[in-house]
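Notes from hallway chat w/ T.B., transcribed later so I don't forget. T.B. wanted the structure written out for a chain they're using in a teaching module, and asked if we could keep both sequence and structure tokens in one place. Agreed to drop them here.
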Amino acid sequence: MSIGFEFELAEASRKLVDRILLVKPGEEVVITADSGSDWSVVSATAQAVKLAGGKPLVLWFNMARGVAMEAEKDIAVRSIRAALMEADVWIEFNRSWLLYSTIYEDVMKKDKTRYLILVGMTADMMVRLIGRVNLDVLFEFQKRLASIISRSHDFELKTAEGTSMVFKNDPSRPVLVEGEVTGPGDYALVGQVDWAPLEDSINGVFLVDGSIYPPEGLGVLRRPVRIYIEKGRITGIEGGREAEMFKTWLSKFNDPRMYNVAHIALGCNPNAKLTGNILEDERVWGAVDWGFGSQAPTYKGKLGLASSHTDALALGATLIADGEYVLKDGEYVHPDLRELVKELKE
């Protein structure tokens, strides 16, 4: 029986394995999936690993009721950790992610594994966000965008809906070109550039009109949520029922670290759309995401891990770096990017 996207998914999986993860013959590739994963994506990726000469191993387990450290209450932690500690590559498709868990922390400390975060990936997403994207052009776009960010110090973020924020960069911290896998470490889906600004410099109001996840029950917002931030910490949340859900979820951890601003991310995948799946939402063209709670060591910030992590997204953003427009109303307008914008959107 047809499952849909058979040919397109095969092509996208090969691009993932060969072009992004650079799987070599003999490498052991562990794919994690839970009962919320799209099995067609898991199967196609395992087959692509085999065709590349790798040795695939699929770990399938129940979907946890939370993410990060909270997820570990529901799953076989010791067995999953044991398998991942020896993996050359870890591809995470599970919907309840293990990023920022103790499993993740132990695997990253060993400095052996190339870990790619593709949580909740569906066949449709895989085809649109990997298979039908010109990776060469997108990587060049991300590199140029990262270069602009890296050489800038003072930033202003605005949206027509009400975002008004300022923050500063530390030039010693990396700006990540997601999807560009260069060795052991954690990586995310192509179509995003992200970094950790100086935490104490982050101030203002973030008007979230795209999505928030987790917790379950949010996703695409019906009403905007207003987040007040002072010196890199959430100081207030307003906006009706969804804002109350978000406040309740943050407070249940009884962990002050959950209110820390962990990173910012710029979305730049031309085929991404707002769906409620945060993996895709963060990559919507011209969207800006702030992450709260755990901060990955990759960012070289000062926060470390918290009880969990969440992301909140604003659409149609304007970002000004050292007085020069990078984004304006959701469109990349910097002179260094214009020609590549045309190529990506053809």
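Follow-up for T.B.: The first strand starts at residue 28 and ends at 34. Might be a good example for the class.
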